């Protein structure tokens, strides 16, 4: 079995509420559900993900907050996660995320190149 250090992908769940100053029970429940669901996927995904809690991720207006991370990949932060309702979507995202070399799973808008009249119509 792979050790947490050898796992390539990390799912982090907010489990400490800065507003209450105590533990976030929905976050702890979500970690248990994610562990069971990822384990049920079997190899290689069950050996590739570490799932852990962390202190406040400053998403308190959108609890539960979940982050997906891996070296060399895009990082995603999701809020308004319900441990009861969103587990299948989170596991589906984990599967897709693990399968992408760069982690890019969603459309994005790159930084804009602005043209200014002051610059003679050149890109800045």
Write structural notes for this entry.
The structure is a single chain. By secondary structure, this protein is α+β, with helices and mostly antiparallel strands. The chain has a single domain, classed as Glutaredoxin (3-Layer(aba) Sandwich). 27% of the residues lie in helices and 19% in strands. The strands form two sheets. The protein has a four-stranded mixed sheet with strand order 4-1-5-6. A hairpin with a 5-residue loop joins strand 5 and strand 6. Helix 1 crosses helix 3.
Total count of helical runs of at least 4 residues: 3
Helix-strand topology string: EEEHHEEEH
Q: Which strand order does the major sheet show?
A: 4-1-5-6
Count of structural domains: 1
Separation, N- and C-terminal Cα atoms: 52 Å
Portion in helices: 25-40%
**Mass-distribution shape:** globular
Give me the count of strands: 6
| The CATH top-level class label | Alpha Beta
User: Could you say what the CATH architecture is?
Assistant: 3-Layer(aba) Sandwich
Poorly predicted runs: none
Structural class: alpha+beta
Radius of gyration: 18 Å
CATH superfamily: Glutaredoxin
User: What's the rounded overall pLDDT mean?
Assistant: 82
| Portion in strands | 15-25%
Q: Major sheet, described briefly?
A: 4 strands, mixed
What is the CATH third-level topology name? Glutaredoxin
């Amino acid at each position: 079995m792979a050790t947490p250090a050898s796992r390539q992908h990390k799912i982090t769940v907010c489990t400490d509420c800065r507003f209450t100053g105590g533990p976030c029970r929905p976050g702890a429940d979500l970690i248990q559900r994610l562990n069971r669901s990822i384990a049920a996927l079997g190899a290689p995904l069950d050996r590739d993900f570490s799932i852990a809690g962390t202190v406040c991720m400053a998403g308190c207006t959108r609890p539960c907050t979940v982050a997906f991370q891996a070296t060399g990949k895009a990082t995603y932060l999701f809020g308004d996660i319900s441990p009861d309702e969103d587990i299948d979507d989170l596991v589906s995202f984990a599967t897709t995320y693990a399968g992408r070399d760069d982690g890019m799973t969603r459309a994005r808008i790159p930084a804009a190149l602005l043209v200014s009249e002051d610059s003679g119509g050149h890109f800045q």
